[in-house]
Amino acid sequence: MLEDDKISNDEIKNLTYEQMNKLNNIVNSVSQQVGGVALVNGIEIFNMSKITNNSDFNKALFDTLKTIDNDTYKLVFSLDLGGKLGYNNISFNKVDIEQLKALEKEKYKDFKNPERLMTDYNNWKINDYGGFIKNLRNEYKLLSEDTIISSESRVLYKRYSQYMSDLETNYNKVVNEPKYA
User: Fold this and answer.
1) Spatial distance between the Cα atoms of 125 and 109, rounded to a whole number of angstroms
2) What angle do CA 14, 2, 22 make, to 5 degrees?
3) Are 52 and 90 in contact (CB under 8 A)?
4) Is the whole model's pTM more than 0.85, yes or no?
5) What are phi and psi of 142, to 5 degrees?
6) What DSSP string runs through 74-93?
7) Which of 20, 22, 27 is nearest to 5 (CA)?
8) If we measure between CA atoms, which residue out of 10, 111, 22, 20 comes closest to residue 67?
9) Per residue in 102-147, pLDDT tens?
């Protein structure tokens, strides 16, 4: 990695989750110091190693993404999953939820029954990542079997369903492995 100043996908695949987190911290620190953004090959794995505040989920996702060989599939799946995490995605979590609630109140203040129109910002937190993974896997599976959507989309959702199954397996491994202090 240090010999050619580049990080290849093969090198990323050989890193542990802990090593990736350390590398992520170094790159983020350097990019902030120079006021720019560091572009890293395999950026989706790099960024996803710290996508939530749940280290078990992050580690399982990191291990899952390392198994996806096609960079395009990996990137598109990462982006989709990042969106599904909503405010649990740390990059979205920078948004102040209380500020969003205040904006919603102001937006609908002149309407009758504004609470029916307002977005519910109270139930955004994922408390059960195992359930989240299972539900999303089932959603993708149903979409992969839905004849109303295009065959290309069904193939994509079938692939996502498999990735979520892999994520579920990895998550269960991580949750059940002994934790050392």
Assistant:
1) 26
2) 60
3) yes
4) no
5) -60, -40
6) HHHHHHHHHHHTGGGSHHHH
7) 27
8) 10
9) 777 778 778 777 676 666 666 678 889 999 999 999 999 999 999 9
- Specify the length of the chain in residues: 181
Taking CA atoms, 104 is separated from 47, 96, 124, 125, 143, in Å, by: 30, 13, 15, 19, 32
Angstrom distance (rounded) from CA 125 to CA 166: 23
Within 8 A by CB and 6+ apart from 66, the residues are 12, 13, 45
Alpha carbon of 118 to those of 42, 83, 94, 110, 123: distances in Å? Answer: 38, 20, 21, 12, 13
Strands (E), the chain: none
Q: Structure tokens of 28?
A: 């983020």
Question: Element (H or E) spanning 141, and its range?
Answer: helix 129-145
CA distance 108 to 115: 8
Give dist(CA 181, CA 177) in Å, integer.
Answer: 13
Sign of CA dihedral 175, 19, 6, 3: negative
